[in-house]
Amino acid sequence: MIKAAIDIGTNSVRLLLCELSGDKIVWKEKKLEMTRIGKDVDATKALDGKRMTDTVNALKAYKGILLENGLTTCPVFATSAVRDASNRIEFVNLVKLETGFDIQVITGVEEANLGFMGVALGAGSDANTFLVVDIGGGSTELIVGTRDGKVLFAHSLDIGAVRMTDRHALKHESGQVEFEPVRTDVDRGIDSIMEELGKFEIGACIGIGGTITTLGAMDLKMDEYDADRIQNHKLSRRTISGLADRLIRASLDEKLLMTGLMPKRADIIAAGATVMDEIMQKLSIEEVAVSDYDNLEGAIFKELLTCN
Question: Would you call 37 helix, strand, or coil by DSSP?
């Protein structure tokens, strides 16, 4: 049985196509278009017209892929940028008119729950209780749960790779001083939930989203992204710190030559890496496992559970 789901994120629009055998994913393929619909939303609170058009065009292409695979529609959800935008209804109506898709604009907690479901039911963890960190373009979700899929705590912070880059006007060839405001934002966000997080014995940390999969691909020196190789790849705090520092100091030309880094992510990856680095330092996390399973798989599993 072929299933699909679409995620309209702050930085990219992603399509998951997968084949199910029972309640297991036995084959999957992800497609990605970086339309960066969330550019400047932190400041303007509105979606840019051209970026809305670019996103609609990506969705039209995905609609064609669905039809080629015998599907007429699928779950389509939008996250941080769209939910923050004052003109989100205009965008939702435009997508409906142009593609027929009914977009669900989900809350930060709903986004967190989908991400955890994708990890817990898709890839799992050996730890009884684990933390999932999902660094996106506009927000970062932290979720604590059990390996049987039960969410114990979920929180969404308005901190993401695009949002931090825009908010603090981050540039290439910078230093740690210029990125200190990012760490301050992370610290403030973590401080607000530290008491709740402290109630749990966390046995492992799993990272999802474009920032951590990119850092994993860079560490593995991937010429071409490989979901199987990235899955469960371990990154130490020292490795994350080293990558963050290297990305902060690098010029755009240097970043474009880095194996594993997609060119369209070059201007925001330093911010994302800094967010991950600061979370690990703040929570004394020594190692994070990378997961390609994320909120897209979570949407598939949610649909299955709803149908059953």
Answer: coil
